[in-house]
Model the fold of this input.
Amino acid sequence: MRLSTFILSLFLLLRCGPEPIPEPQATILIAPANLNACTTASVLNEKERQVSFQWTAALHTDSYELVVINSLTNAKYEKSSSLLTESLVLPSGAPYQWYVNSKSLLTAAVGQSAVWQFYLEGSPAERYLPFPAVLIAPENESTVDLNASGAVSFAWEGNDLDQDIESYAVYLGRAENDLELVQEGLTVSQANLTLDSGTHYYWQIMTVDSEGNTSMSAVFGFQTAD
Done:
Protein backbone atom coordinates (compact mmCIF):
# COMPACT_ATOMS: atom_id res chain seq x y z
CA MET A 1 0.00 0.00 0.00
CA ARG A 2 1.37 3.36 -0.95
CA LEU A 3 2.01 5.88 1.84
CA SER A 4 -0.56 8.33 0.46
CA THR A 5 -3.23 5.62 0.39
CA PHE A 6 -2.38 4.57 3.97
CA ILE A 7 -2.65 8.15 5.21
CA LEU A 8 -6.00 8.61 3.46
CA SER A 9 -7.33 5.37 4.95
CA LEU A 10 -6.20 6.39 8.44
CA PHE A 11 -7.83 9.81 8.04
CA LEU A 12 -11.13 8.24 6.98
CA LEU A 13 -10.96 5.79 9.87
CA LEU A 14 -10.46 8.57 12.38
CA ARG A 15 -13.30 10.56 10.87
CA CYS A 16 -15.61 7.57 11.27
CA GLY A 17 -14.90 7.28 15.00
CA PRO A 18 -17.62 7.74 17.61
CA GLU A 19 -19.15 11.17 17.95
CA PRO A 20 -18.42 12.94 21.26
CA ILE A 21 -21.23 12.72 23.79
CA PRO A 22 -22.93 16.11 24.06
CA GLU A 23 -23.08 17.58 27.54
CA PRO A 24 -26.45 18.67 28.98
CA GLN A 25 -27.06 22.39 28.55
CA ALA A 26 -28.15 24.79 31.27
CA THR A 27 -31.84 25.50 31.58
CA ILE A 28 -33.38 28.98 31.96
CA LEU A 29 -35.30 29.66 35.15
CA ILE A 30 -38.84 31.05 34.88
CA ALA A 31 -40.54 31.14 38.30
CA PRO A 32 -40.40 32.20 41.08
CA ALA A 33 -39.02 35.40 39.56
CA ASN A 34 -35.58 36.58 40.57
CA LEU A 35 -35.34 39.07 43.48
CA ASN A 36 -39.10 39.14 44.06
CA ALA A 37 -41.58 38.08 46.70
CA CYS A 38 -43.18 34.72 45.98
CA THR A 39 -46.85 35.64 46.38
CA THR A 40 -48.30 32.72 44.41
CA ALA A 41 -47.31 29.99 46.90
CA SER A 42 -50.11 27.91 48.40
CA VAL A 43 -50.63 28.48 52.14
CA LEU A 44 -50.51 25.17 54.01
CA ASN A 45 -50.37 26.53 57.55
CA GLU A 46 -48.93 29.47 59.50
CA LYS A 47 -45.35 28.37 58.93
CA GLU A 48 -45.28 26.56 55.57
CA ARG A 49 -46.00 27.31 51.92
CA GLN A 50 -46.03 25.09 48.83
CA VAL A 51 -43.94 26.77 46.13
CA SER A 52 -44.10 25.88 42.43
CA PHE A 53 -40.90 26.14 40.40
CA GLN A 54 -40.70 26.33 36.61
CA TRP A 55 -37.87 26.29 34.05
CA THR A 56 -37.29 25.75 30.34
CA ALA A 57 -36.22 22.55 28.57
CA ALA A 58 -32.47 22.09 28.14
CA LEU A 59 -30.76 20.36 25.23
CA HIS A 60 -29.18 16.90 25.69
CA THR A 61 -30.96 16.48 29.04
CA ASP A 62 -32.84 13.46 30.43
CA SER A 63 -33.71 14.76 33.88
CA TYR A 64 -33.46 17.81 36.12
CA GLU A 65 -32.47 18.37 39.73
CA LEU A 66 -34.15 21.26 41.53
CA VAL A 67 -32.02 22.70 44.36
CA VAL A 68 -33.43 25.25 46.83
CA ILE A 69 -31.44 26.73 49.75
CA ASN A 70 -32.82 28.66 52.71
CA SER A 71 -30.51 31.68 52.97
CA LEU A 72 -31.10 31.99 56.74
CA THR A 73 -30.55 28.40 57.83
CA ASN A 74 -28.61 27.01 54.82
CA ALA A 75 -31.10 24.13 54.77
CA LYS A 76 -31.04 22.52 51.31
CA TYR A 77 -34.04 21.02 49.54
CA GLU A 78 -33.54 18.86 46.44
CA LYS A 79 -35.94 17.13 44.06
CA SER A 80 -35.30 15.19 40.84
CA SER A 81 -37.74 15.44 37.96
CA SER A 82 -38.20 14.66 34.28
CA LEU A 83 -40.67 17.54 34.04
CA LEU A 84 -40.18 21.30 33.67
CA THR A 85 -41.99 22.15 36.88
CA GLU A 86 -41.93 20.88 40.45
CA SER A 87 -43.15 22.04 43.84
CA LEU A 88 -41.66 22.00 47.33
CA VAL A 89 -43.04 22.69 50.81
CA LEU A 90 -40.86 25.37 52.43
CA PRO A 91 -40.85 27.35 55.69
CA SER A 92 -42.25 30.84 55.08
CA GLY A 93 -40.79 34.20 56.07
CA ALA A 94 -37.32 33.63 54.63
CA PRO A 95 -35.20 34.42 51.56
CA TYR A 96 -34.25 31.50 49.31
CA GLN A 97 -31.80 30.75 46.51
CA TRP A 98 -32.61 28.22 43.80
CA TYR A 99 -31.15 26.68 40.66
CA VAL A 100 -31.64 23.65 38.41
CA ASN A 101 -29.08 21.04 37.32
CA SER A 102 -29.52 19.42 33.90
CA LYS A 103 -28.47 15.76 33.76
CA SER A 104 -28.00 13.12 31.06
CA LEU A 105 -27.89 9.31 31.18
CA LEU A 106 -24.95 9.36 28.76
CA THR A 107 -22.49 11.49 30.70
CA ALA A 108 -21.62 12.58 34.23
CA ALA A 109 -21.40 16.20 33.12
CA VAL A 110 -24.01 18.53 34.61
CA GLY A 111 -25.39 21.79 33.25
CA GLN A 112 -26.22 24.31 36.00
CA SER A 113 -28.62 27.19 35.54
CA ALA A 114 -28.15 30.68 36.95
CA VAL A 115 -28.86 31.08 40.68
CA TRP A 116 -32.00 33.08 41.44
CA GLN A 117 -33.30 34.45 44.74
CA PHE A 118 -36.83 34.97 46.04
CA TYR A 119 -38.51 35.82 49.33
CA LEU A 120 -41.21 33.47 50.60
CA GLU A 121 -43.74 35.60 52.41
CA GLY A 122 -45.11 34.68 55.81
CA SER A 123 -47.26 37.08 57.81
CA PRO A 124 -48.63 39.95 55.66
CA ALA A 125 -47.33 42.44 58.25
CA GLU A 126 -43.77 41.16 58.33
CA ARG A 127 -40.84 43.07 56.93
CA TYR A 128 -38.55 41.49 54.38
CA LEU A 129 -35.07 40.38 55.29
CA PRO A 130 -32.35 41.51 52.87
CA PHE A 131 -31.26 39.04 50.19
CA PRO A 132 -27.69 37.73 50.57
CA ALA A 133 -25.38 39.98 48.55
CA VAL A 134 -24.26 38.72 45.16
CA LEU A 135 -20.45 38.82 45.01
CA ILE A 136 -19.07 40.29 41.78
CA ALA A 137 -15.34 40.90 42.17
CA PRO A 138 -12.93 39.34 42.83
CA GLU A 139 -14.53 36.33 41.16
CA ASN A 140 -14.47 33.00 42.94
CA GLU A 141 -11.14 31.13 42.55
CA SER A 142 -9.66 33.91 40.41
CA THR A 143 -6.18 35.45 40.50
CA VAL A 144 -6.09 39.23 40.86
CA ASP A 145 -3.33 41.82 40.62
CA LEU A 146 -2.74 44.37 43.35
CA ASN A 147 -3.06 47.96 42.16
CA ALA A 148 -0.32 50.56 42.49
CA SER A 149 -1.25 51.06 46.14
CA GLY A 150 -1.14 47.35 46.90
CA ALA A 151 -4.92 47.08 47.14
CA VAL A 152 -7.69 44.98 45.58
CA SER A 153 -11.10 46.35 44.59
CA PHE A 154 -14.15 44.46 45.89
CA ALA A 155 -17.64 44.80 44.41
CA TRP A 156 -21.00 43.19 45.16
CA GLU A 157 -24.73 43.73 44.61
CA GLY A 158 -27.28 44.01 47.42
CA ASN A 159 -31.07 43.73 47.18
CA ASP A 160 -33.93 44.12 49.63
CA LEU A 161 -37.64 44.14 48.78
CA ASP A 162 -38.20 46.85 51.43
CA GLN A 163 -35.49 48.98 49.78
CA ASP A 164 -34.08 49.74 53.23
CA ILE A 165 -30.51 48.44 53.09
CA GLU A 166 -28.58 50.55 55.56
CA SER A 167 -25.02 49.28 55.26
CA TYR A 168 -22.63 46.48 54.36
CA ALA A 169 -19.78 44.84 56.23
CA VAL A 170 -16.78 43.09 54.66
CA TYR A 171 -15.31 39.91 56.15
CA LEU A 172 -11.90 38.68 55.00
CA GLY A 173 -9.48 35.94 55.96
CA ARG A 174 -6.95 33.37 54.83
CA ALA A 175 -9.12 30.44 55.90
CA GLU A 176 -12.71 29.93 54.76
CA ASN A 177 -13.94 29.24 58.28
CA ASP A 178 -11.94 32.02 59.96
CA LEU A 179 -13.07 35.33 58.47
CA GLU A 180 -12.62 38.61 60.33
CA LEU A 181 -14.60 41.84 60.09
CA VAL A 182 -12.37 44.32 58.23
CA GLN A 183 -14.84 47.07 57.24
CA GLU A 184 -18.37 47.92 58.34
CA GLY A 185 -20.90 50.70 57.94
CA LEU A 186 -20.33 50.86 54.17
CA THR A 187 -23.15 52.59 52.34
CA VAL A 188 -21.86 51.66 48.88
CA SER A 189 -21.42 48.18 47.43
CA GLN A 190 -17.67 48.38 46.92
CA ALA A 191 -14.46 48.59 48.90
CA ASN A 192 -10.68 48.74 48.43
CA LEU A 193 -8.53 46.64 50.74
CA THR A 194 -4.73 46.54 51.01
CA LEU A 195 -3.59 42.91 50.80
CA ASP A 196 -0.41 40.83 50.64
CA SER A 197 0.80 39.53 47.28
CA GLY A 198 0.96 35.80 46.55
CA THR A 199 -1.70 34.99 49.15
CA HIS A 200 -5.00 33.12 49.04
CA TYR A 201 -7.92 35.01 50.60
CA TYR A 202 -11.60 34.38 51.30
CA TRP A 203 -14.25 37.09 51.53
CA GLN A 204 -17.90 37.51 52.45
CA ILE A 205 -20.40 40.39 52.70
CA MET A 206 -22.98 41.01 55.41
CA THR A 207 -26.00 43.13 54.44
CA VAL A 208 -27.77 45.15 57.17
CA ASP A 209 -31.21 46.77 56.79
CA SER A 210 -32.77 49.63 58.75
CA GLU A 211 -34.43 47.20 61.19
CA GLY A 212 -31.11 45.55 62.04
CA ASN A 213 -31.89 42.42 60.01
CA THR A 214 -28.83 40.88 58.40
CA SER A 215 -27.93 38.35 55.70
CA MET A 216 -24.62 36.76 54.79
CA SER A 217 -23.42 36.21 51.25
CA ALA A 218 -21.66 33.14 49.92
CA VAL A 219 -17.91 32.90 50.62
CA PHE A 220 -15.61 33.44 47.63
CA GLY A 221 -11.90 32.64 47.46
CA PHE A 222 -9.21 34.29 45.33
CA GLN A 223 -5.43 34.48 44.95
CA THR A 224 -3.38 37.67 44.80
CA ALA A 225 -0.64 37.61 42.17
CA ASP A 226 3.05 37.60 43.15
Remarks:
- The chain has a mean pLDDT of 92.
